[in-house]
Amino acid sequence: MLPRPRFRLPLWAPFALAGGAYVVRSAVRGFQFRPDLPMDAIVFVLLIAVVVMVRWQRGDDTRPDE
């Protein structure tokens, strides 16, 4: 059995992390915010799929454990 983490991130956190990574990548490229299609689209769709699966797995309880 795999170990389960004791903390849970809010569902908005993966989007903030991905957005931050995108801004850093754009800054490294000289502030060109143009997406690299199709790779950025694939990563965005996979991010949404993972967040939806996590939301489904959590059920109604989306609050972090206190």
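the 2nd protein, sequnce then structure:
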Amino acid sequence: MERGVNVNDWPANDRDANSEEVFAIDPPSTPSQDLGPCLYLGPAGQRCSRRAVKDGFCAIHQPGQSRVTVRQQDAKRSKIVAAILGILGVLWPLLADLVREITRWLHSH
């Protein structure tokens, strides 16, 4: 009996040098597993309510993906609006004086 040199080599009597046959090994069938809730923890420690699909995370919170959620977009938008309102609040006395001087200048001509 002749032995193959490689660990994954077929025995010599099962292998035919002239054959183009490809041996396909079916992957073991895995039953669908319930991976439980997503492992993602939000900024305040809240858990994601979606079911995990791969590696313990849901489709949105897969590691290595940079997705911006709707809440994050709303948070960025509200911060921008708050900053603009704050700047207008601080500059309002100067803007009011500027508008008053422009209207006085327009009416004088």
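The first helix runs from residue 70 to 108. Residues 98 and 104 are 10 Å apart (CA to CA).
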